[in-house]
Structures are given as structure tokens and as C-alpha cells.
Amino acid sequence: MIFITAYNETSSLVEGFRVGGVDYITKPFQAEEVLIRIANHLKLSRLTNELRAKNRALEEEMSRRRQAEDERDTADGRLSILADRENARWGLPGFVGQSATFRSILETIRRLHRFSNASVLITGESGTGKELVARAIHYGGVHAEGPFMPVNCSAIPAELAESMFFGHVKGAFTGASSDRKGFFELASNGTLFLDEVGEMPAALQAKLLRALEDGQVQRLGEANARKVQTRIVAASNVDFQSSIAAGRFRRDLFFRLARFTIDVPPLRERTDDIPILARHFLKVLSKEMNLHMPELTAGALKALRSYSFPGNARELRNVLERALVECDGHAILAEHIHFFFSPEEAQRRTRSLSEELQAPNESHQTGSAAPDEERIREFVQAEGCINNTSCRELLKVDRHRASYLLRKLEREGRLVVEGQGRWAQYRLPEARA
Ligand SMILES: Nc1ncnc2c1ncn2[C@@H]1O[C@H](COP(=O)(O)OP(=O)(O)OP(=O)(O)O)[C@@H](O)[C@H]1O
Ligand SMILES: [Mg+2]
To answer: Which of 174, 240, 258, 408 is the most buried (most CB within 10 A)?
Structure first.
């Protein structure tokens, strides 16, 4: 609104503006002036509208950004809560035991936290907690903020192994549609956990050794190597002594990986850990199942302590999971404890597990295996060779026992093997045949 006034005095002008005028014209007026003022005000109002719209858009954009940032912050918060939980779960607090053996393992882990670059090799039977030891090494050390990357070496196809470990550039091979980092780079400033390292294919062993020696990795198809700061923690339940003797594992790689070694003994050799582990598992499991934690009676504990646990801590956890369901919210009694194997079968299994990890010259101590071994050699003398199937038939044992005995005789140099896996045939060594 533009108003017209004949009195050029302040009070009436103020009144005009007060009721909503944006400008005024004094009488007598010229048409020219009116048109110019109107044009100016239309322009001003257009610009104001435009500015207002832009402002609104800007405000919307800012609020979107604020929201995104809030979301990122909560996600970060969530991540750090997860990291805390992970830490509580995998760091030293979630790793329980009280036996002297366990305490000395803890001591070693604590010492390793200070040597952030040394590779560590963890050995022990299946289910003893090797992965937990690896995580405890990582989450307690200076690289705790960095990634912990577990890689199961036995599950990686040999032809993909190099690109998976070291990465590749686009076009390095058919199907390489973009650049990719390998495990070494992904775990940079953190820990690369090589699980089942004893099963690593030979070609990869050589490449791994090179990477470990100079701390550099080269993506497939790329000319230059890159420096990485990746700590290597490896684990395996194979007997390296015989693997190396049989040429299945490189001696130099073994020594490179085993700057420090931690042997995690089987649960049956540290039964003092059973009560505390059992309670720990019950606590974790009942929380997961949203139950209150039941009491573990002396009877149940006695049953647990007398069993030999061929599957180690993992088996204990499974046994308790079932007991937790069966006790139906009441105390866990001996009758709720069910083992997967009969005590005799469990002992037979643990005996062969122990023998398998023992040095060859110690393995005769058990005695009971000797007649079986003699019978196998007699069979080979008569038939020329033996495989797993014929050994099973000969001794009336299962596949695992047959395979264990044959591999043991081979390790001890009393038989030689030809072929692999189910095609393996065992014969007498040349000199003796
Ligand atoms: N001392 C421990 N404290 C708490 N939990 C444990 C302990 N030892 C083992 N466990 C639990 O037992 C299970 C088996 O442990 P883990 O996977 O580390 O064994 P492993 O030695 O890597 O076995 P495998 O050779 O079969 O891979 C896991 O659920 C782990 O959390
Ligand atoms: Mg494991």
C-alpha cells in the first residue's frame, strides 16, 4: 500500500505507515513518480519473496543436516556401546578362568598388550577358547580401536586367496570390476586373526611370509607395494611339528608367525576352571534367553568336573544351554546334565586328541593304541596298502579313529601316504618295504 498525503507532517506520515503503508506520495503528484515508486516496490517485494523462499529452503536443508548429524552421532554412540559390549564380551573381563594355567595365559596376554607388533600363534584343541584369546590380545592392546578381522584360512579357495588377502585393482583379472582392499589393508592398524592357519594352501603360505617379512602388501595388478601396520594373530589346532615334517607347512612361516606362542590346554587339564566357566556361561545364556540365572547345584558341578570334555569349553557351554532349558527355572541338578558322549567314549576321544598333539616319541605311553597300530602294519605288509575304509573294517572303529591312527603312523615314519583326503592310501616306507 502506497498512500497519498497532502500534509507533509510527521504525525500523519507515521499514522500512514502504522496502518500498513510501505511508501507515500505527496499531493500534487506526477504520474511518472507514482509509476516509478510502484515499480520499485514491486521489485522489492519480488526480491523479498525470493529471499524468503531461499531462506526456507536453506532452513530445511540445515534441519536435514542437523538430523543427519544427530543420526550419525547416535550411530557413533551405538557403535561405541557395541564396542564396549564387544570389549566386555571379548576383552579380559569376558574371558574367565581361575586355574593356575589360565592365570598364566592371562599373564602372557597382558604382556603381549605391550608388544603391539609381535605376531602370536595360539595353539590348542578345538573349543578351548583360541579365538577368545586372540580377541583378548586385540581388545586389550594399543590397537583396540582398530579393526579385529577374523579370517578362516581353511575356508578360502586357493585361487581367490591372493586377491582376498592382498586386494586387487580394477581389471586385474576377469571379474575384477573395481579396486578392492585385501584383508591386510582392511585390518590395518588393527589385528588380522588367521584362524586355522595350519590349513593354509602352500602357495599362499609363501606370499604371506613375504608380506609378514617386509610389512608390505601389493594389490594384484598394481606395481607398487603399500606399507601396512597390521598385527597378525594366528590360531590352529594342527600339530605343527608333524605338519612341518610332512612338508605341509613352511618352517620359515611357522617361525615368523610364532614370535610368541600361547598354548591353550584342554579343559580336562584345568578342571579348576570348570565351576567359574560354568557359572559364566549360565549367566550369559540366561541373559540371552531372558531367564533368571538358576543355581548350579553341587551335584551338577560334580558331574561336570568328572567329565573329560573332548569338545572343551564349547561343549561345556552346549551342555549348560540344554540344562538351562531342562531345569525350567529351578536349580540345575545332576540329572539336567547330559553329555554328548558316554564317559568312556569321551575319554577315548580325548585320549586320541592328546596323542595327536603329542610328540611322536611320547605317544607310545598310552599303550592301548599299540595293538591297533601293529594290526594296521600287518595288514599293509600283507595287502600292500591301506586306506581309511579298510582300516575301519579291520579294526571296527569309526572314520575319525581310523584317520587318526593312519596319520599318526605316517607322522612317525612307519607308513607313507599317497594321495589326499578320501583318496589317501598308506604304504610301508621304501627302505623298510
Ligand atoms: N575362558 C573362557 N571364558 C569364557 N568363554 C570361553 C572361554 N574359553 C572358551 N570360551 C567360549 O567357548 C567357545 C569356544 O571358544 P573359541 O571359539 O574361542 O574356541 P576355539 O579354540 O577357537 O575353537 P575352534 O578351534 O573349534 O575354532 C566360545 O563360545 C567361547 O566364548
Ligand atoms: Mg576358533
So the answer is: 408
